Each structure stands twice: as structure tokens, then as C-alpha cells.
Amino acid sequence: MEPIQASLKKWMRENKNFQENFNHIKKELLRDPEISNILSNNPEFTSSDIDKNLMKLYEYRSQSKNCADCPSLDKCINMLPGYTPQVLVEGKDVHLTYDKCKKKIQRDEQQKKETLVKSLYMPKDILEASIDDLDHHELDRHDAIREVLSYVQSIGTNKAEKGLYFYGPFGVGKTYFLGAIANELADRNISSMLIYMPEFVREMKSSLKDDSVNTKIEYFKKVQVLMIDDIGAESLSAWFRDEILGSILQYRMMERLPVFFSSNYSLKQLEQHLATSNRGDTDLVKAGRIIERIKQVSKEVPLFGLNRRDL
Ligand code: ADP
Ligand code: MG
């Protein structure tokens, strides 16, 4: 470093404009409360030490600290957007390090969460649902909330294996419950896949054309937590019921992987519904088999109360 410093000094001596500029910057810097604070904490710093570290001090002063001067992360004014400078004086040297600012930490956490909660066709309010917002005021919801809390508490213990099957009328918040659980799981680094059943059926049907059905089935079999929203919302073909849903549930049952559901039907009612395929054929045995699997991977929980869409 020395030769550069020396030649810089020589050059500075020769260049009056530069010298003037330098002095101007130095004066301004010394007037700055943050910089004078640093210097007063380091009284051994001489004027030539300041000269030597002027660019570092200048850089420190020009950067926004802890987001103070940035309206948002996207409009961050720092050299390294999303990073805030820390100054460290060691002997006669000033060091600058850059740490992630609070806004960037927040954004990164949010993005991580988004990669953990995967979904197919889920509205934004559901993806932002939180367990803290589950409304405790309605008596009708207490059992369901208790089940959610008890599930959450059991995560990571060997008691945790079954998901929950929420059923109840339209609009009471069943899907919201699923979203809230998915976000809670993401906070614990567990990934989940939340799918809206009618779209799931369409997705699988259209995958038949490009042969990606098996890849998708594999994915739904193996994702850490699977959530099927609105099962029973439409009548299924025997193919979908037995080959797709049946095989995914069979796998998850064997591997003890949880599945969450929401439905307008209780399991008893769903059995009737699944017994009739969309062509009108009836097969109670096959429907019973699906219901058995659902019971193995989840616990049935009623959810009643007010229709929140009318609130
Ligand atoms: P369901 O699936 O039972 O038909 P939803 O979960 O879709 O009902 O809820 C209906 C509406 O009410 C949605 O817009 C949802 O975001 C909202 N909602 C449900 N529960 C809550 C809650 N605890 N806090 C805020 N909004 C909620
Ligand atoms: Mg719903």
C-alpha cells in the first residue's frame, strides 16, 4: 500500500485543485456529527491518520445507516443496496463492513417463506394468513383452533404425523386455516404445498397431454406437508379418485406424511360424494378406501361459525 499512498500524496501536492477538494471534503467530514463521534472515540487518531482514512470515512458518511435515508429496499441509496455500513477502527486503520439491513433481512425471510409455501391457485389473503389472526371470539371455532395449536405444538415431536381435515359450511375460514398453518410451518422451515382441488384436477388432466402426470404425482406424494383445499367441490372421475388421489394418499399414509384438507363435507358425506363418479357409476368400496386413507393421514375437525364473506 505504501508506494500507492506515497505517489498519491505526491500527486496531491502537485495538484492544487485536488488538494482544495480534499481539504473541503475533510472539513465537511469533521463537521459531521457521526464522523466527529468516531474520531472523539479514537483520540489517538492524528490529522494524518484522518487523511489516510479519508476515503473510508467519506464512504461511511455517504451511506444510509440502518435504512434511515432509504424510502424502501428497492430505493436503497447505498452502494450495495440492502446493506448498511459498520465502521470499525483498529489502531490507525478504519475498516468498513457491510451487513444486511433490516429491510433486506425482512425481504429475504419473506422470500424464503414464499419458497416454502408453494401453492396452486390460492388467493393472496390466504397466502398471508397467520395463526395469530385466527379469530378466537366465536365459540364455534374453539375446537378447530385448539386442534391447530395442538398440531403446531406437536411439530418436531414424534407425535406429529396426522394433518387435519376441516369441514364446515362455506365462508367460515377453512381455507384461511390451511394458509395460516402453512405459514406457521414455513416459520419452522417446513415446506408445504397448498392446492385448490378443482384446479388440481384440471392441472392433472392437462398434464396427461405432456406426460408430466407422473412427475407431478411424485411431487405431491413427497412434499413435506400436502394441503388439499375444497375436496369434494366437484365430482371426480374414477381415474382421478383411484389413480391420482388414491395413490398419493396411499403413499403418504405409508410414509406417515401429513395431509391437510378442507371440505364442505364431513368424511361421512364425502364418502357418499366420492362413491359416485362423474359418469354416474357408483363404487362404495373404492370411495370407502379413499376415506380410510384420509383418516390415516388426517384428523377430522368441524369448523362452523359465521360466514366471513358476509362480514
Ligand atoms: P372457506 O374456505 O371456509 O369457504 P375462507 O377461508 O375462504 O372460507 O374465508 C372466507 C373469507 O374470510 C376469506 O376472504 C378469508 O380471507 C377471510 N377470513 C377467514 N378467516 C379469517 C381470519 N381469521 N381473519 C381474517 N380473515 C379471515
Ligand atoms: Mg375454502
What would your notes on this structure say?
This protein is of the alpha/beta class and 311 residues long. It has two domains: 2-100, no CATH class; 108-310, P-loop containing nucleotide triphosphate hydrolases (Rossmann fold). It is built from 14 helices and eight strands. It has helices at 2-14, 16-31, 33-41, 47-52, 54-62, 102-116, 124-127, 142-154, 174-187, 197-207, 213-222, 238-254, 267-275, 284-297, and strands spanning 83-90, 93-100, 117-120, 163-167, 192-196, 225-229, 259-263, 298-302. It has a six-stranded parallel β-sheet, with helices on both faces. The termini are far apart. Magnesium ion binds next to helix 9. Magnesium ion binds at residues 174-175, 229-230, 262. This is Primosomal protein DnaI. Residues 160-289 form the AAA+ ATPase domain.
What spatial order of strands do you see in the largest sheet? 3-5-6-7-4-8
Strand segment count:
8
Low-confidence stretches: none
SSE topology string: HHHHHEEHEHHEHEHHEHEHHE
The CATH topology label of the largest domain is: Rossmann fold
Ions, cofactors and other ligands present here are: adenosine-5'-diphosphate, magnesium ion
CATH superfamily of the largest domain: P-loop containing nucleotide triphosphate hydrolases
Describe the global form: elongated
Q: Which percent band covers the strand fraction?
A: 5-15%
How far is the N terminus from the C terminus? Answer: 70 Å
| CATH architecture field of the largest domain | 3-Layer(aba) Sandwich
Q: What value does the average pLDDT take?
A: 89
Give the % helix: 40-55%
The largest pleated sheet is described as: 6 strands, parallel
Protein name: Primosomal protein DnaI
Pfam family, one: Bac_DnaA
InterPro entries: AAA+_ATPase, DnaA_dom, DnaI_N, P-loop_NTPase
